[in-house]
Each structure stands twice: as C-alpha cells, then as structure tokens.
Request: fold
Amino acid sequence: MEDESAPRSLSGDLHIVLVAPQIPWNTGNVGRTCLAIGAQLHLVRPLGYSLDHRYLRRAGLDYWHHVQPRIWSGWSEFEAAIDQFGKPFLFSSEADRNLWSLEIPERAVLIFGSETAGLPKDIRQQFRDRLIAIPMQQGPVRSLNLSTSVAVAAYEARRQQAQADGRPS
Reply:
C-alpha cells in the first residue's frame, strides 16, 4: 500500500532549475531536497564548478548518484524545452508577487538564478509576469541562500499539490 503522506514519486510533475549556479554545496543540497520531494533537478550552464567537485558530492552525501540532474548547455536550450515540463515560475527579489499568493499547478517548473547575481536581467524581463519573491521581513537581509530558497519554494509546491489531491499537508 502506498503511503499517502509521502511525497510524490519522481513522476515529472515538479522541476527545479538552477541557472548558472556557482557554489557546489548549494547544488548538492538542492539535489538532496529534490530527492526528498520527488522533483527533477535541472542545471543550466555555465556552472561555477565541476560536477565531480568533492563539495558537491559531500553536500549531496551518498544520495548524489540518485539525483541524476539534467544538464543543459545554456538558457536558450532549456527555454526551448520548458513547455514540456510545466508552468514556469522564476524566483527573484524584484518580483511583484510573492510565494504566499501563488497557486502552484500540478505540473510546475521552479527556476532560480545564481547565488551571486540571481537570474540574468534579460530572463527577468522576458518572464516579468512569472517572477515570484519569497516573503521576508523588512530589514538587513536582502536574500536567502539558494538552497534555502529552493527548499522553501519546493515544499510549498508539494504542500499545495497535496492539498489539491486531498491529502494532508
């Protein structure tokens, strides 16, 4: 019997995309989160590290070989294929909408930029109506760590999907 409280299996309904990530342990942590919630990880080059980097493997612990990220040569290659994965949402502190106001559909693509620069300006402009911010209190903190941001958004997506399926969230 299937555990109804468990996350969905890796069935292609939730995709996490890192565009030009720079820090290997963030990617390792994101990969581990993807496994925990049954999401597919996509990495869009350029990457700021080698996929063989020891910190990437360390952050992913002994799970990294299960992650099996899809690697894209660049944004244009990924963008050409984006529609096959679901409705895209791009995370940026510039967004007018925040995660709490978002209704995440069953098939969704959550897209995040690099740790140092976020998403490139041309991508933010092109997808302006799809930009989403993670709510934070006013104060000295301008942004969250990339792997923290991914976890917040991904678990909110799964919570909403579980509610839509009538499962406890």
Summary: The first strand starts at residue 14 and ends at 19. The helical segments are 24-37, 54-59, 64-67, 75-81, 121-126, 146-164. Strands lie at 14-19, 40-44, 70-72, 87-91, 97-98, 108-112, 131-133.
